[in-house]
Amino acid sequence: xxPPNSKSKSKFRITPIPRRRVFEAVADSIRQGIFAGTLLPGxxxxxxxxMASRYRTSRVALREALRALENEGMIVIKRGYGGGAFVSDxxxxxxxxxxxxxTVVKLGxxxxxxxxxxxxxxxxxxxxxxxxxxxxxxxxxxxxVVLAQEEELRTGALSRRYDMEFHRxxxxxxxxxxxxxxxxxxxDSLRESIFRSKLSxxxxxxxxxxxxxxxxxxxxHNAEAAxxxxxxxxxxxxxxxxPLESKKRIVK
Length: 252
What we know:
By secondary structure, the chain is mainly alpha-helical. Helix content is 69%, strand content 3%.
């Protein structure tokens, strides 16, 4: 006789749990120290021999753990005299994220239109937040960039050197370091495509004009205008990049 409710019994299966590799446990221990604040940015970790002894593991496993943390942007490994493993700061975290995005782009898994889609979701909201949080110093720095671009436009210098700086300063004006890391990484990944796109006086005038409009909305604390102006600007930039993406596909 079958036991009662045998048909309703769970199909729960017990499967073996893989053993954790030593280097993963070491990496997690260091990672948790960084997250807890016991290892601060710039802090130098003990020498490899000492750490291997404390963790009771081989130097091979320790080096594998350090390489994993370096790939994540958690630490920086410096060679030569005075070198060693150092806890990263935000700049290195940004570099790790940017490098990951660049790899995805170069492998063909993401195109500029995908990055712009993320910018379209984030940057208009960022501009809106910045209208409330930007300090006088933030606004002065943003205006300085706009003035520099307007001067270049008057002299006929079709430079893009201030374009990413403008967006970096706007996201910094939110005083949200997470937003800054994400947006700056995305914009850095777009840099190559933007620099390769066609350049004309008319296009530069439109970009610089958009930057001026966004700045004035931030200065006037006009959140709605800042959001709309940033949306129009991001979409206009993608319009410059679309022909380049099409040409790349044809060449391939």
